Amino acid sequence: MVKMNFVKTQVEYEFSKPLFSKTLLVALKSYTKHFPYSFIFLILFITSCLISCRKDIEIFPPESEEVSNPEFTSIQGFYLLNEGNMGSNKSTLDYFNYETGTYFRNIYADANPSIPKELGDVGNDVAIYGNKLYAIINCSNKIEVMDAKTAKRIGQINIPNCRNIVFHNGFAYVTSYAGPVQINPDYQQVGYVAKIDTASLQILSQCLVGLQPDGLAVANGKIYVANSGGYLSPNYENTISVIDIASFRETKRITVAANLHRVCADKHGNIWVSTRGDYYSTPSKLYCIDSKTDQLTDSINMAVSNFHLDNDRLYIIGVKWSNVTMSNEINYSIVDVISKQIISRKFITDGTDADIRMPYGIAVNPITKDIYVTDARNHVTPGTLYCFDKNGKKKWSVRTGDIPAHFAFIGKY
Q: Within the chain, how many helices (H) and strands (E) appear?
């Protein structure tokens, strides 16, 4: 029997059903551990859950917590988008204020009390461009546009099954699966990239690409789009679509590997792309494409669940199931994008990585070089954000929303 990789990809946790029973089980285990004889309470608790007409899982109210000493640079803080499990309407937005050392949870609800369903279902990406904050809410089929300083809602852009966002010369480019969430080896609906005017928030055009496009990056007047084919298991897509920005047309496809995922462009013209593999015999891997020639030039054999590019360093977290140890093998690595070599396999140096159950999101402060790693834990209860200094020593940690994943720094850097 082949053991599947335990990394919870977007598709995997979208289909981890039933969500209610999992959440209930966690609650019951926690409660009975501390109050083993409160049978009457348990009966009332179960009954209230079963008869409730609201299917949404409870979201923690807005709250704050002091976690560190104040820091004063040109970066004021960062947003952290918590994905929340599919079907729970539980995506939330947190904010860390460097100038006070305070972490704020679920700030969208506080800033927008009139929005009945709050942020929505499955936050898949977040970014700041100009004075606007963009949150990609995948299963709510929308981009939530907010004021970058206050998180107050400015508008909404409706895009079905939207995934990731990049910006270039006043326009936003967003990947869309186009069709519904559906695991189907015969899925035929191709995806597209939407071009959006960031001033009017209007969709101007669409460019068809491959099946289930995920990450994307801009380099040399082109957009590179990772076609994952994530709904086609076990016959995943394996190509990068290349879009000419001027004409907004797909000009070619570059064959890379199965189930492509993250994409970023460094300042040397390299396009870095990760593959999730097929979770069986084909492993996750890191690849490099030269944007000048559109040729695949390098590959690195390592599990890549997520990465963050900081100058010439690509910080990587990878989770891979081992049939030898019967556990997840986790790496915290750094790749030098100039030499294209691994220069560290353990950027957390003080042993506190042992506290992290399921590393999921990663970011690096471009000024202080503090490293942030999120722990999704069991994917259905609140996660944890860890902060490490540039030498890999833990500074602090704090509770987040469910499945903390995506970062956006606010300020000048």
A: 4, 29
- In the three-class reduction of DSSP (H, G, I as helix; E, B as strand; rest coil), residue 406 is classed as strand
Residue 270 contacts residue 337 (beta carbons within 8 Å)? yes
User: What's at 222, amino acid-wise?
Assistant: K
CA distance 253 to 158: 27
Question: Over the stretch 158-170, which tens digit does the pLDDT of each residue have?
Answer: 999 999 999 999 9
Q: Please give the radius of gyration of the chain, using alpha carbons only, rounded to the nearest integer.
A: 21
Distance from C-alpha of 129 to C-alpha of 408, rounded to nearest angstrom: 10
The predicted pLDDT at position 324 comes to 66
Report the residue count for the chain.
413
C-alpha span between 260 and 256 (Å, rounded)? 8
Look at residue 32 and give its three-state secondary structure.
helix
- 336 in Cβ contact with 344 (< 8 Å): no
CA 223/CA 240 separation, integer angstroms: 10
Q: Is 229 left (phi over 0), alpha (psi -120 to 50) or beta?
A: left
**CB burial class (10 A; 0-12, 13-18, 19+) of residue 168?**
middle
d(CA 292, CA 222): 10
